Prior knowledge:
Elements: H1 3-12, H2 24-29, E1 40-43, H3 51-57, E2 61-66, H4 69-78, E3 84-88, E4 91-96, E5 99-103, E6 119-122, H5 131-143, E7 150-157, H6 172-179, E8 183-192, H7 198-202, E9 209-217
Parallel strand pairs: 1-2, 1-6, 2-5, 6-7
Antiparallel strand pairs: 3-4, 4-5, 7-9, 8-9
Amino acid sequence: MNPEFWHERWTRGEIGFHQPEFNVHLQLYFNRLELSSGAHIFVPLCGKSLDMVWLLEQGYQVTGIEISPLALKEFFEENGLRPEIRDHSGAAVYRCDNLEIYCGDFFTIDLSKLDPVDAVYDRASLIALPPDMRVAYAERLTGLLAGGTPTLLLSLEYPQQEMPGPPFSVSRAEIEELYGSHYRIEHIFSEDCLAREPRFREKGLTRFEEHVYLLQKHYR
């Protein structure tokens, strides 16, 4: 899955992963991160997620990374924001008040000047990636974080053979494998939501579960 895949998805408007409202799990469980006002939240593979607006409204500083300039154009236009755009090592960085979004490839973009991250919000990042990219994703994300940094991670589980991703099914066992050596992992919510997701039933899925995890990076 190369960058062109995502550029094409945005160009064709194939963005079923985008939610037109604030994520309910974000609103219910974000306080479990126990953050101070003004804390710095990192949102990888952010798309044009409205969840960034919610985080800003709670008084947080937000940094996102998104590969598609079209996604960022739509985000700022749809939310009535006028960012300042500057160059950063050949990549565009959009800034507006307490929001900063890097436009580039998460795996290669220079993040050496990223402000210290107080927490990570991953709603549709890990599940957007095929299995052969998840290890590199988890390693790069882990390398950005200091000990004690929490992550709110949302994932999906379904019979992968019944539907091609993205979004992909990522099991609890795989999350333990990806993060277990560096984080304490707490499974805080699960729900079989196939009954309220007709588009996935129409794809032939027999099970479709949402899961929420709280990860806390070890001090080492």
